[in-house]
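Lecture 7 notes: from sequence to structure.
We start with the chain below.
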Amino acid sequence: MVALFIYLLSLVCWLGGMIFFSIFTAPIIFRVLTRAEAGKVVSGIFPRYYLLGYIAGGIALVLALYFCLLATGRLWWCLSALALALALGLTVYAGAVVRPQIDAIHISDEPNPDPARKAQFDRLHRLSVSLNGGVMVLNLLAVLTTAAALTRP
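Predicted structure tokens for the same chain:
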């Protein structure tokens, strides 16, 4: 029972944090602040945003694997573990590879950035948004398969 509680808590924290940041926090920051100020704020949030994904995703994955091996409804737990493994992989890639590349370009405080750097930033930003969306979909799939595992005899 404790393992299930920790699993659900980690999954809820990860998915909830992503939804709150993506739907509420970031849009408001970019609406209220200038682009340069908003970029600095969001850049300050991202290390903790990804850290939440690494920790909560890692815990959820380990526990999903545990349930996959030991619990009833193994197929559903294994599908949940697969979704979480993919989500965690995408999160690590987004946080450890894509985010540093975006930070290195650092165009948010330039009034007229070089068009090539701006195009590179835009491409990496779209990739980051796509990865984030993919992680959310995979987390929702993990919630769905967890529900199926918990309701199957």
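Points to note: The chain has four helices and no strands. The radius of gyration is 18 Å.
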